[in-house]
Structure to design on (300 residues):
């Protein structure tokens, strides 16, 4: 599944089941994906909610979905990419699809929660939030060839 | 509430409510609490579940509770601490008690989930997990003067 879009990685992350609840790995400073710690924050999605679209000019995303289930859609609009114009769609959630997802700058992404309860994304980026370095597009834009169900 | 136990910090963290679900801050590389990135992982707790007790010799914990509600109990067993033998108990959860909690080495901690659904802890430690540097104690030990309800 990796390299369907250049630079996007899906790395299987550990889920250690315990009696009281699982321990869920995301990233360590010796993980191959780790470059620099910028910020760790969480994003909650209510059932059916869509958060789309966003693209970062500088920041790399490193996230997983420990709670609930989301559909992630990625679109490569980078002029110099070998996978330019490629769009992929993947479901993320435990136990069968618990990944550390790495999204490099220049790739558009959007989420939709597809579980009956709320979902949670935990993201460890390589630079703190800076609204100047990201661009948003409305979900009904005509630039990205994808139609959300809502 | 800070400094009830020496070195333990409760920092109000931002909750940015959006239509689709909140964005929940934890830590940035320019946060006062940030020293070094070691590992980010999540710990899930089923309703009523207890995860206790643990103490780290080297690692500092930096966590919040974005989902559900937990009771956190801390006990200071450090010989050289000004708050030696002090025990504190606090409920953590949104919206009224969403904190970045910083626990330095040497302080014992334990959790119990007190919400009807599962709870989740997101922890950004200053060093990767190393089983050699932490000590566990059974919940029914007689060293820590606390009795869990279970």
């Amino acid at each position: 599944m990796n390299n369907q879009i250049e630079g996007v990685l899906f790395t299987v992350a550990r889920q250690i089941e315990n009696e009281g609840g699982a321990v869920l790995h995301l990233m360590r400073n010796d993980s191959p994906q780790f470059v620099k710690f910028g910020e760790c924050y969480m994003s909650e999605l209510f059932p059916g909610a869509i958060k789309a679209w966003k693209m970062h000019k500088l920041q790399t995303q490193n996230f997983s979905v420990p709670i609930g289930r989301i559909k992630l859609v990625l679109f490569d609009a980078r002029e110099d990419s070998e996978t330019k114009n490629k769009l992929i769609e993947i479901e993320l959630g435990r136990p069968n699809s618990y990944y550390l997802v790495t999204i490099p700058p220049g790739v558009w992404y959007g989420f939709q929660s597809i579980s009956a309860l709320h979902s949670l994304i935990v993201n460890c980026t390589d630079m703190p939030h800076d609204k100047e370095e990201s661009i948003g597009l409305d979900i009904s834009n005509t630039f990205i060839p994808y139609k959300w169900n809502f």
Remarks:
- The domain at 9-136 of chain B is CATH 2.60.120.10 (Jelly Rolls).
- Chain B has one domain: 9-136.
- The mean pLDDT of chain B is 96.
- Residues 67 and 83 of chain B are 30 Å apart (CA to CA).
